[in-house]
Task: structure prediction
Amino acid sequence: MLTVDFREIALREGMRVLDAGCGSGRHLCEAFRTPGAAVAGVDLNWGDLCKAKGFLSLMAGENGGTWIVARADVTKLPFADGCFDVVVCAEVLEHIAENRAAVGELLRVLKPGGDLVVTVPRFLPERICWMLSSAYHREPGGHIRIYKKAELRVLLEEAGASCRRIRYRHGLHAPYWWLRCLVGHKNESFPMVRAYRKFLEWDIIRHPRLTSMLDRILNPLIGKSIVFYLKKGCR
Result:
């Protein structure tokens, strides 16, 4: 399930892309589909990095691109200043205590004029999850904060980015997480949770017109994620 729409940043051949907090590689692999792209992914979870490596290995040779994955902290990225054309940080900042340091690193490794894309859980859907389940955000490695739109925008712009567009995604997914929090956020065997999950998986694979339209209607109202598309200033 992609949260970032790469059409918004017009990936081109030969671009260098960093996915900071890449997880198992969903956005990393999507960027790697661009002919000649050089992609890098970092994460602290070794198991997720192994999955990302496996996916990228299967894709290698398709388009002449290059890739690398490494275990690294987003607050201390092991890259030189200005070495990426695009930096993606999807559903990561809500986990990090030193969020200013993380944002500073994202901008440091991005070249002037480059694209930065940051996504986090949206305030209202996330707040409802916290109200329904304390365990949802108190487990190790869980969400430690909920961002308001204006708060995160100020944080990003103070670090040197200019916001050019904001989008909302995954309106169909917010009720699924509310349901999970209501019955126990790890209780995936609950019949309604299991049925809703199958529906979402079917929707992701099939992309039917009706649910796509419903998702677009729900996104501005209860979209699970907020997506900031930004540019690094040249100052």
